[in-house]
């Protein structure tokens, strides 16, 4: 199956696109787009990959489900368009960055400024029916994003993986900590940020690791 995605990703993920599970997933997603309102809109499905080619990835942030509100989700995990209120989890991320690095808290919730530097904020599930959280779970996206993680783990060295919450930590079990820096903490959700996300210092620790390996730091 030919999938429209940035070429460096397409070459590496084509074996996944050719597997039966992905054909079933693609048929399900096509039907959902045809009959339901789905987030993100079709053209933004692989937006984070299109903006961050494989060889430019430096940091991976693993999420779970997209925002189910069509105003908010446009293909980049945690990110929201300008003009919308910053969701609680992203507010807490910005707060931790400020406390950790001293950078000012931005007014905008758009994270393209991270993505173009090599940060890949990726949900485990890439689509959702509008206003129905988790509605596209167990359809095949989890298998696909596992393959993305394996490719990065196997073909790259000295990446930083940020695993926030138990779901991301289970999914990140396939990452080799002898090749990459794996940072784990509580999820930044308002329900859990006080239980270990605040004070985790993941952003300065990521930059320290990148610098030690001669890799440019991220301007958070």
TrEMBL record:
One of its GO terms (biological process) is base-excision repair, AP site formation via deaminated base removal. GO terms for molecular function: uracil DNA N-glycosylase activity. It is found in: Cytoplasm. It catalyses: Hydrolyzes single-stranded DNA or mismatched double-stranded DNA and polynucleotides, releasing free uracil. CDD domains: UDG-F1-like. The keyword Cytoplasm applies. The active site is at 65 (proton acceptor). Transmembrane segments: none annotated. Residues 50-210 form the Uracil-DNA glycosylase-like domain. One of its GO terms (cellular component) is cytoplasm. SUPFAM superfamilies: Uracil-DNA glycosylase-like (SSF52141). Its EC number is 3.2.2.27. InterPro entries: UDG_fam1 (IPR002043), Ura-DNA_Glyclase_AS (IPR018085), Uracil-DNA_glycosylase-like (IPR005122), Uracil-DNA_glycosylase-like_sf (IPR036895). SMART domains: UDG, UreE_C. The keyword Methyltransferase does not apply. Keywords: Cytoplasm, DNA damage, DNA repair, Hydrolase. Excises uracil residues from the DNA which can arise as a result of misincorporation of dUMP residues by DNA polymerase or due to deamination of cytosine. Belongs to the uracil-DNA glycosylase (UDG) superfamily. UNG family. NCBIfam families: PRK05254.1-1, PRK05254.1-2, PRK05254.1-5, ung. This is Uracil-DNA glycosylase. It comes from Alistipes dispar.
